[in-house]
Amino acid sequence: MKTYDWIVVGAGITGAALAYELAKTGFSVLLLEQQTTPQNATRYSYGGISYWAATTPITRQLYQESIARHRILSQELDADTQFHELDLLLTIATNANPEATARSYAQVAIPPRLLSIQEACELEPLLNKDAISGGLTVKHGHIHPEKTAQAYIQAMLRLGGEMEISQVLGFLTTNTGKFTGVKTTTGIFHSANIAICAGGISRKLLKSSGISIKLYFSHAEIMEIPPIELRLNTLVMPANVQRFQLDTESTQVDELWDEVGNEILPPILDAGAVQFLDGSLRLGQISRVLTDPHAQVNSEASEKWLRTSITQILPALGNLPGIWHHCLVAFSKDKLPLIGAIPEFEGIHIFSGFSSPLVLVLPLAERFAKFVSGQEDDIISQLSPTRWN
């Protein structure tokens, strides 16, 4: 039976990019995905690339590498990722001070420019001027996430990689504990190495084999609106994004995550909207910290809450016909991903926990593939899952 150099579990943007980079480096690769049409975070992403938002030496370097790569990725993969740049409009709530909000962004690589209410509405005519005290704007990258993931997969296949639609049920190990493959719904596959890129279900998948890892997930909810003629000029997001604070606070007690059924914190809603090149829209986002990856939420109540909040900011969009969707979003304690070999378990690696995947996955997938082929990389070393041990 064939033994691959790498099995990559999960074909969202993370797994697709990693499988491609490993194949490009010369490894034999099998990419596993449990769904023919994945319903993952890539599928329901806004598609934004916040290359301006770096705040540390590591993120400044990676974000610069990322935007340079995005600009040539369509050519490299021979497929249109729909990359373009647009104006990001960060709305400032009526009860917030615009100058103080602008100062909170002073440390980022490219600080957004402060706008008056009038200037914000000129930039985005669909805005409700009575719902804001001002805005911030900066150029922002944008892609079609699904098309980009598919472009990576097709390029990986052209390089000789393989893909199987199959759900992972467990792992193969030797008597010494080395991981040597996976058991799936369609068969058994052998490999020298396994990379877990399964996003929000990565923690549960590893836990089933006795591996504890400090990786977490939120339940994200959005509305998807079919193509419309009405045009949204900008990508709209709140200047004070609550999601990152929610992520940080929810990781304080790791043990809570091993108890299915916990709601660690109340849900939050960051009202935003983006329009894709085909005219379709994504409106969101509700985030819930529920420790059960299969937890059920009240979709009707969620949709009402989401639509009400969007209507306050963008009245023309809140009641458009559309479909509510839900997915899991992986994250770590420090907003940086977990990348590298899992200690004490030979042959299995983690490549997950990207709070900002579309800006970080591209450079880190390339760096990781080179790292495992023998090249030293200080950044990959700093992202090891051992950094909290």
Automatic annotation (TrEMBL):
Family matches, as Gene3D superfamilies: D-Amino Acid Oxidase, subunit A, domain 2, FAD/NAD(P)-binding domain
GO molecular function terms listed in the Swiss-Prot or TrEMBL record: oxidoreductase activity
Cellular component GO terms, alphabetical: cytoplasm
Domain named FAD dependent oxidoreductase: residues: 5-366
InterPro entries named among the record's database cross-references: FAD-dep_OxRdtase, FAD/NAD-bd_sf
Assigned keywords, A-Z: Oxidoreductase
Protein name: FAD dependent oxidoreductase domain-containing protein
Organism: Trichormus variabilis SAG 1403-4b
